[in-house]
């Protein structure tokens, strides 16, 4: 029992350090960018293409803020705008697939995946889903009735205070990471030492097999589904080290999770926007399953092609 606690704690500290080196500087930089014209400039830049997604030009603001920061910041920006139910739903779908891009994509790269793949999948899903919803749904023309009014934020007085708040926010991000990752690693270590993790992976086997992955990917999937990419990456890093999760399975798991992670929290926080959240959850789950199965099938066929060629040469 003592060894389990010690090993789990050490794994948690090491993982927090690995991810903290990514989360701290990015949070610091983005927090500083909030107080510059950069985000407004980016919103102005993408305003002309908003019509493709069935959105008004001002909807570019929550899109940019949500992608550079997080869902909460994106939702706060939505609350400050007069939008229709359809526009809010489209924004919710887009932000579900594509939010907190800098941190979550950098964490994915830290695990060992190609950054451009993660960005392409997340932004691609956001764009395609918005276009499809806009074309398919002909309702939602009434103005959205928000469940609460966003709180006014205290404006920092001068750059010294801005830098101080940015450092504080970045530091709190790492502390929050540690408070989640370290206990999680300790629990996982106990489960491993007690042999319960083997039982769990066998229980999850039908799901992982359906998605084209091996059983040992189950903890990675569950962690990402429940606590999100940024925190779930800690489990993924450990899984690569200890569970011999292959590069293929890790890539497939991440493709599934970029479409559908932190499903409970990321769905519930949209309730105050006055939109139907069950279709939002359904879209994320269905897209994640279909996308992962499709890529796994293509990958399998590509892997099998050389062996078929070799067999034909021998004959």
UniProtKB/TrEMBL annotation:
Pfam family, one: Gate
Start and end residues of each Nucleoside transporter/FeoB GTPase Gate domain: 17-99, 175-264
Annotated TM spans: 12-33, 38-55, 115-137, 170-191, 219-240, 252-275, 281-299
Keyword Transmembrane: yes
Tagged with keyword Secreted: no
Record keywords: Membrane, Transmembrane, Transmembrane helix
InterPro entries in the record: Gate_dom
UniProt-recorded name of the protein: Nucleoside transporter/FeoB GTPase Gate domain-containing protein
Organism: Metabacillus bambusae
């Amino acid at each position: 029992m003592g060894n389990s606690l010690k090993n789990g704690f050490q794994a948690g500290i090491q993982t927090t350090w690995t991810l903290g080196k990514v989360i701290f500087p990015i949070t610091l930089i983005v927090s500083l960018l909030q107080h510059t014209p950069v985000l407004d400039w980016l919103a102005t830049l993408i305003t002309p293409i908003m019509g493709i997604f069935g959105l008004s030009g001002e909807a570019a603001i929550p899109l940019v803020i949500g992608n550079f920061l997080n869902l909460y910041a994106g939702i706060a920006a939505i609350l400050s705008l007069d939008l229709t139910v359809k526009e809010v739903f489209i924004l919710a779908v887009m932000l579900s697939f594509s939010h907190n891009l800098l941190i979550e994509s950098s964490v994915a790269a830290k695990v060992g995946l190609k950054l451009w793949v993660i960005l392409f999948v997340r932004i691609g899903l956001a764009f395609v889903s918005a276009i499809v919803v806009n074309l398919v749904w002909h309702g939602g023309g009434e103005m959205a009735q928000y469940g609460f009014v966003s709180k006014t934020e205290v404006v920092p007085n001068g750059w010294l205070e801005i830098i101080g708040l940015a450092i504080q926010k970045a530091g709190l991000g790492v502390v929050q990471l540690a408070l989640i990752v370290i206990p999680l690693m300790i629990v996982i270590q106990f489960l491993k030492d007690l042999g319960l993790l083997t039982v769990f992976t066998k229980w999850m086997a039908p799901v992982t097999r359906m998605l084209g992955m091996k059983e040992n990917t189950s903890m990675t999937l569950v962690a990402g589904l429940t606590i999100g990419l940024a925190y779930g990456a800690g489990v993924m890093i450990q899984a690569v080290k200890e569970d011999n999760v292959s590069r293929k399975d890790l890539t497939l798991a991440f493709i599934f999770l970029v479409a559908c992670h932190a499903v409970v929290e990321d769905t519930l926080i949209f309730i105050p926007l006055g939109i139907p959240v069950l279709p939002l959850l359904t879209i994320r789950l269905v897209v994640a399953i279909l996308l992962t199965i499709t890529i796994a099938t293509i990958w399998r066929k590509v892997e099998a092609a050389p062996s078929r060629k070799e067999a034909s040469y021998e004959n």
